[in-house]
């Protein structure tokens, strides 16, 4: 079998074709460099393209500039643990949202400071709070006990703490949006007015802003929440609290797929497969959230919505362009008029097109159902979605011309001793069976897929994270920097 390209996408027909970038194809196409990198760092590797991350930062900045808004962008680093991206965030002129002692400590060592960092941890220890106060990093407070602890720590240090209040329980279309995080909307203004400030219980706390982060991806809910925060912010200002920013958190949708038709077709065929009991799409009849109950289709696709027409800048535009019926002004206009700085904390969407995960083929076998299983030198925790599956077709990179078998359907299996260590639940159709030593590349994995669930069961090494500096020169081995070698200042 002769192929011009020695790499191609799985599922040439009936696929879920991912959006890819030039830099990814450059790597897939350059076997010499790829093999060099894989041999040096082992399988799997995560490659991160820094110029793309920089472009993503620039695009969000341009959007806020186009609205003439005061703004700050904080990259939510929980979505990817690499130091190189934190460094790049500062170089690209944005800040970093930290959510643990180590994330904060490391971000400070990588060039962060009180102006470009924020602490939003769900659990805040005394030592975290002290580190934030010492560096004048704003602390986003979640509850009264945190106020007590922050006050104690600040007092002991003889310093003041910059704080923002996280708010939840927004009322949208007559219903309260539940969240386990934050102060309830109905109580927060009174709470701050009664207990925070000179001669009050929390006299060492300086209220600098308001914060929310909503579950889900509704722009409408975000607009209502933002509008509500503008009102609360104004109330607090009238009561003498210098509220300067409103932080609307992350959850900005991104789009992974090229073609909406493919997304709709996939959903239809999966529903049909579950309904008819004839599932030839997924491993072991996994319904990915759908199930049959008394002959009826129940449940819903339990994955990230991988196709999104409205995403990133257009998503934010929908939030900011929302018109408040009372004032007749858009939220952007209200923010400007009331001199609020708008802040966002995108994780996933800033990592769009930034990463790929590449692993080596170790074995091929046919199971008792005559399904082909292709064993990869990696495990399920090294590319794991919080949802039922990562619905993007992978790329196969052949390292030799020989082909044992043509036109095969495969599942990729991993190294954990669990039946469910199957890297993609969808069956992938290939024009030829991969050979031992070939590579499989999963694209657009930088947001959450690489690290959020990575574990060290069996004492397997964690994957190597490489920063790809991607200059205009021809691709070379030297453009890949091991994230572990990035020094803290
Ligand atoms: C997770 C999280 C983010 C980032 O969310 P994305 O969906 O990755 O954009 C931002 N802020 C807070 C408080 C979070 O918990």
TrEMBL record:
Organism domain of life: Bacteria
Keywords for this protein: Lyase, Pyridoxal phosphate
Cofactor(s) for this UniProt protein: pyridoxal 5'-phosphate
Start and end residues of each Orn/DAP/Arg decarboxylase 2 C-terminal domain: 352-445
Family: Belongs to the Orn/Lys/Arg decarboxylase class-II family.
SUPFAM superfamilies according to UniProt: Alanine racemase C-terminal domain-like, PLP-binding barrel
Species of provenance: Maribacter sedimenticola
Record-linked InterPro entries: Ala_racemase/Decarboxylase_C, De-COase2_C, De-COase2_N, De-COase2_pyr-phos_BS, Orn/DAP/Arg_de-COase, PLP-binding_barrel
Location of the Orn/DAP/Arg decarboxylase 2 N-terminal domain: 56-272
Lyase keyword on record: yes
Name by which UniProt lists this protein: Diaminopimelate decarboxylase
